[in-house]
Request: fold
Amino acid sequence: MDREVFGDAKAARLVNDLCVPVRVEPERRPDLDVRCQQAVRACGGPSGWPLTVFLTPDGGVIWRSKEEGPRLYGGTSFTLEDDFVRERDGFLTVLARVAGDWRDDREGVLKDARVLEEALRKQGAGADQPKPAPPSKDAFEQLGANMREAFDPQYGGFGAGAEGPRHPMPQALELALVFHARTGDAKYLEIVTHTLDAMLDGGIYDGLAGGFHRMALDRRWHFPRFEKLLATDAEMVPLLLHAWQATGRETYLQAARQTLGWRIKEQSDPERGGFFASHAADEFYFTWSVKEVEAALLEQGACELVSAYFGIRERGDLPESAPHRNILFHAQNLTQAAHAAGVKDDAAAALLKEALAKLGAARAKRPPPEVDRGILVADNARMVSALLEALQAVGADDFRTAALKTLDRLLKDGVDAARGVAHSIEPDGQIVFLQLAADEAALALACQDAFAATGEARYFEAAAACLARLGKSFMDDSGAVFDRAAGAPAAAGAAGRMGDSEKPFTDLPGPSANAMAMLAYVRMAALSGDATCADRARKIRDAFGPVLTALGGPASSVPLAAEAVERGITLIVVEGPAAAEATQALRGAAGTAYAPHKLVVTVDPGHAAARAKLGLNDTLPARVPTLYVFSGARFAGSVTEPAKVKELLIKASKAF
Reply:
């Protein structure tokens, strides 16, 4: 829209003449973004990014209550002129209608805006919601049935049979993995693997460097919106690792490692730590003409194999915006492409690998897309958690270094005793404090993961401080977490609905603040035996309990976290000297096996206080390194042999 709509001279002139244009980056102000998205959805409009909304001077969202039905003036991805194929008004038409209504019926516009504002305010404050209560006995079974119904068996993802944009929805796929572990139902695993396979084969995944684009514009995952967000990769990497643990498919592990490697090498600050926010959309950078492929590969056999594999042709995939340019999605599998290119089957894999390396080297010489070098605290915290999960799985030292250097920077520069956790560290060094719950909760989870990985008490204490601030400044009697603290800088000067507090439950991308807080509290209770944390986790769960089955899809993080509270996290305690080979072998086995909501910690046999907090006070200190599994408050068993860890975790996951 920047180029095609707001870059148009006529549109720019009209916007400046008729409106006060304000550009809000959703990553910088997720609190404002979620309020605008909710308003658009409430009026039946298409939400997403980039989003355009029209506000009254006092912060109301403009829509009209017409006799022929409500008319919304906001939406996503407007074209400049009317789109007669999709039967959708263009931006110029919408702008003219808004201006006309504001000129001819201003009082009516303000009245309709107040009606919507009040409805959303009641919804956000919980006034229209049932009283808090635990989820019903069949809530998770109903969520599973809803997921199966929404699954697209042809192309993966959710929205069976529906065309149009597809978002990765990693939290929904994580929930499917949990359901598979609990029930053994292979359908849930199929939902995960079919969707991941389609994404890795599609244009949404950057197979040359690693990393996922923000979304796909089509049902087959072929045509991405080329922007790459840290927020997306921070969710997709753990999902890939969990899918690898559950299935043993190396393609998932390879994609996770490739994505992390690209982030560390190309999208981070190697000196101070921290990962950059985003990699701008650039159609030219990520696409190829036939001549560019030939110039990069030179050898005819490789050109023919790559062209068959990715469906590269003169016509290209983007006839309107970039004729003759091709997106690298898998048009055929390798065997089919080898036959089409006349390449022997046993030589095809090596030839393709070499060709992809050459394409990657050639692309690296192009002018790179613009990079937003801001350090977003919540996204960085979640990337820290992803790196530490990968460290546990494969033991790569560079993952540990990048994770702890980033986390230490966040704790040093991004935490203030009076203002809590910062939202961002900007490229010019400015540290922005908005007092958002998501920043506190994500940092708490990252610190818990760092404590589990290193045993350093300072990370545990930092997590406890985040959770104390959450409980003091963001929670009310209902139990749910507000996205902004009372009196937060984020709300200062915000008019109308934009100034209200909200109890978030949708994934933005990134898990909602309530989901992350719920999980952080239940994990802290497991790590420390803290009854207050356990109670707060239950209160957040119960705040959403009566409506839990209505969530899922783009709001799956709350059911996922509620499942952890309801059935417990999988706490794995490895007792033994940290440096002992047998202790490391047990930790390694735990890192390569899947279990729902898994957290692995090591405790020394001589540390009586730590043993008691972790539930080992009823057992004698182990004479040999031993792995204990707790599923919620229930002791599920122990083993001393790494080969038996996976079997124990499978058994523990299903014991409900």
